[in-house]
C-alpha cells in the first residue's frame, strides 16, 4: 500500500525538531520507520512547519508506529492513496 503522510509542527517546535531531524542518519531514520516501510520521498515547507511524505508498506502497524514516534511534536495525517493505474482500474469497475 502507498501512504500519504502530512504534518503540521506544533507551535514553537520547528527549531528543536529540525535540529533533531538534521542529526538523524539514514540508518537511524530507517530504524525508526521499521524494516517494512519504504520512504518514497519527503518534502518540507520549513517556513510554515508543514510537510508531506509518501511511503510504501504492507504493514500498517509499522507506518502508524513511525507516525506515533513524531506526533508528540506535530499533528500527523496518514492516508492510503492509489496511483493513476489503480485509480483507472477502480474507475472502470464503476462503469461495469
Question: Keyphrases for this structure?
Answer:
single chain, 96 residues, 32% strand, elongated, DUF3303, DUF3303 domain-containing protein
Question: What is the secondary structure topology, with strand pairs?
Answer:
Layout: E1 2-9, H1 14-23, H2 26-33, E2 38-45, E3 50-56, H3 60-70, E4 74-81, H4 84-94
Antiparallel strand pairs: 1-3, 1-4, 2-3
Overview of the molecule:
This protein has 96 residues and is of the alpha+beta class. It has a single domain (2-94), classed as Alpha-Beta Plaits, CATH 3.30.70. The chain contains four helices and four strands, in the order βααββαβα. The chain has helices at 14-23, 26-33, 60-70, 84-94, and strands spanning 2-9, 38-45, 50-56, 74-81. Strands 2-3-1-4 form a four-stranded antiparallel sheet, with helices on one face. Strand 2 (38-45) and strand 3 form a beta hairpin. The radius of gyration is 15 Å and the shape is elongated. It starts with a strand and ends with a helix. The mean pLDDT is 96. InterPro entries: DUF3303.
Number of domains: 1
Structural class: alpha+beta
The CATH class designation is: Alpha Beta
Would you identify the regions where 5 or more consecutive residues have pLDDT less than 50? none
Following the backbone from N to C, one meets helices and strands in this order, namely EHHEEHEH
Strand-residue fraction?
25-35%
If strands are numbered along the chain, what order do they take across the biggest sheet? 2-3-1-4
What is the distance, rounded to the nearest whole angstrom, between the alpha carbons of the first and last residues? 25 Å
Described by its quaternary structure, the protein is single chain
Instruction: Describe the sheet with the most strands.
Output: 4 strands, antiparallel
Question: What is the typical, i.e. mean, pLDDT?
Answer: 96
Q: Nearest-angstrom radius of gyration?
A: 15 Å
Organism: Photobacterium atrarenae
Protein name: DUF3303 domain-containing protein
InterPro entries: DUF3303 (IPR021734)
Amino acid at each position: 500500500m502507498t501512504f500519504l503522510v502530512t504534518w503540521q509542527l506544533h507551535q514553537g517546535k520547528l527549531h528543536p525538531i529540525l535540529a533533531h531531524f538534521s542529526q538523524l542518519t539514514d540508518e537511524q531514520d530507517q530504524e525508526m520507520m521499521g524494516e517494512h516501510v519504504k520512504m518514497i520521498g519527503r518534502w518540507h515547507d520549513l517556513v510554515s512547519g508543514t510537510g508531506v511524505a509518501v511511503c510504501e508498506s504492507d504493514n500498517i502497524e509499522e507506518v502508524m508506529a513511525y507516525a506515533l514516534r513524531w506526533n508528540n511534536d506535530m499533528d500527523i495525517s496518514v492516508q492510503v492513496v492509489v496511483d493513476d493505474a489503480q485509480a483507472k482500474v477502480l474507475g472502470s469497475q464503476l462503469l461495469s
